[in-house]
Amino acid sequence: MLALILGLVLFLGIHSVRVFAEDWRTARRAAMGENAWKGMYSVVSAVGLGLIIWGYGLARQAPVVLWDTPTWTRHFAALLTLLSFVLLVAAYVPRNALKARLQHPMILGVKVWALSHLLANNTLADLLLFGGFLVWAILCFRSARRREPLATAQAPSAAATSLTVAIGVGAWAVFAMWGHAALIGIRPFVAVTPTS
What we know:
Layout: H1 2-14, H2 17-20, H3 22-32, H4 34-61, H5 72-90, H6 97-102, H7 105-120, H8 124-147, H9 158-184
Helix pairs in contact: 1-4, 1-8, 3-4, 5-7, 5-9, 7-8
């Protein structure tokens, strides 16, 4: 569990500098130079992400169950995750209505992803991982909205919005049917048989 916690501290910590220490971040970037700052940021992020993956994998070998999860939560989580994929894609497709309306769809996508996984999972490692990302996303979204008030962007395009939804749904389907099992080892749509 220590590796998971350390990974979360590193990964979410470096991604929270702008939320909690904007002046320090600006000073460090100026002192180090843009490329050195980005290099350090990338290394800390990669180490943190690696520790999260490793630590979560270790924690799953001896899970500490905190509560019972009804079967319906898995189906609801799948629906929420579909929404999170569309929001993530919306961050990158220009002139889509979701980005124009929400301003920070990627952070909202992380928030929805974390919430969906908190609903469907029930161990201490899940609470730390997905709870940590949910708290980070809430704080980060509030900070981003304060820092960058709602801007008037180009008028959204119906074609761009349709493309955003189509790519998000397609990516979600591929990940839900194949990618989740390949990368995480769990098939979201296959019933879990309890072990005695």
